[in-house]
Specification:
The protein is an all-alpha fold. Helices cover 77% and strands 0% of the residues.
Length: 294
């Protein structure tokens, strides 16, 4: 733990806009961090007298990622800096998605599904909070317009959709490997950040409206596909019907149409986005109210 803390502090102090100067210390710190985690899992695997359990599975994945960082360090040493940033991207993606392909065989009961949901909910709440803080420039007390209200309700209905889907409709007390929950939250967090970027771009007025609109549409679609991917964790008395899917697709298409038809209009951009978020929120809310009445 001490080594981890020192490595994190060291890595944080190396971060700068100059990738060439920070690449080596950054990759070295990441390698040390990962190797300390490998050491901890090795201790657990030794206690289990097996590499077939969860600890052994994690060691395999971490060693693959460590190998990639070693390659990145060697590229820096031999002045192949042009490849280093892409190798780092591969390392991050490998660490994120390799568990989906190398699953291992172990007792799923060691995974606390409620605990994981709680942690991912906290991460998502923090991301929504950062989104609100990042959009404060829309709120100008000296020049009142509907724009900040529309922006606020877009984020609010996205958050409401997330809470209903993940916190209310899902059965948390279950035994699962939780891979779907984990991977969907990668995209949930990414899509929330992309929505923030799209709103900031359209507010700046210095970007192509087609690009900003396309980014907003894609981000919202990714967000709702990601939260709906967790329908497999619904309570027993809740089912996502074809009617629900059709309604969600319809409101999304209507919102997309409003954005694209009036592509240069800021209000149309925001109203179209709100149609998508509020429409899907309302469908999920009705679904939740329906399960309460049963």
């Amino acid at each position: 733990l001490v080594v981890n803390m020192i490595s994190v502090i060291y890595m944080a102090n190396t971060i700068s806009h100059d990738w060439a100067s920070m690449a080596f210390p950054f990759d070295l710190a990441m390698l040390i961090l990962l190797l300390t985690v490998v050491a901890l899992y090795s201790i657990q695997a030794k206690k289990e007298h097996s590499m077939q359990g969860a600890a052994g599975n994690s060691i395999t994945i971490l060693l693959v990622v460590c190998t990639i960082y070693i390659i990145a360090i060697l590229c820096t040493i031999f002045n192949l800096t042009g490849y280093v940033i892409w190798i780092n991207v591969v390392a991050v993606l490998t660490g994120a998605f390799l568990p989906f392909f190398i699953r291992g065989k172990f007792d799923k009961s060691i995974i606390s599904f409620p605990h994981l949901v709680e942690r991912f909910e906290l991460l998502t709440i923090i991301t929504f909070g950062e989104a609100i803080v990042g959009l404060t420039h829309f709120f100008d007390t000296s020049n009142f317009t509907l724009i900040p209200i529309l922006v606020f309700f877009i984020v609010l209905t996205m958050f409401g959709s997330y809470v209903i889907q993940i916190h209310r409709l899902m059965e948390h007390h279950r035994v699962e490997r939780s891979l779907r929950l984990m991977f969907s939250h990668y995209f949930i967090v990414i899509s929330i950040n992309l929505v923030t970027v799209a709103l900031e771009l359209i507010h700046s007025g210095e970007v192509n409206h087609l690009f900003a609109s396309g980014l907003m549409i894609v981000s919202l679609i990714i967000f709702y596909l990601s939260i709906m991917a967790n329908k497999e964790y619904y309570r027993q008395n809740i089912k996502l019907t074809k009617k629900d899917i059709m309604l969600m697709c319809t409101v999304t298409l209507v919102g997309v149409a409003v954005i694209l038809i009036f592509i240069s209009n800021l209000y149309a951009f925001l109203v179209g986005s709100l149609i998508i978020t509020f429409g899907n929120f309302e469908i999920l809310l009705m679904k939740y109210k329906g399960c309460l009445s049963e």
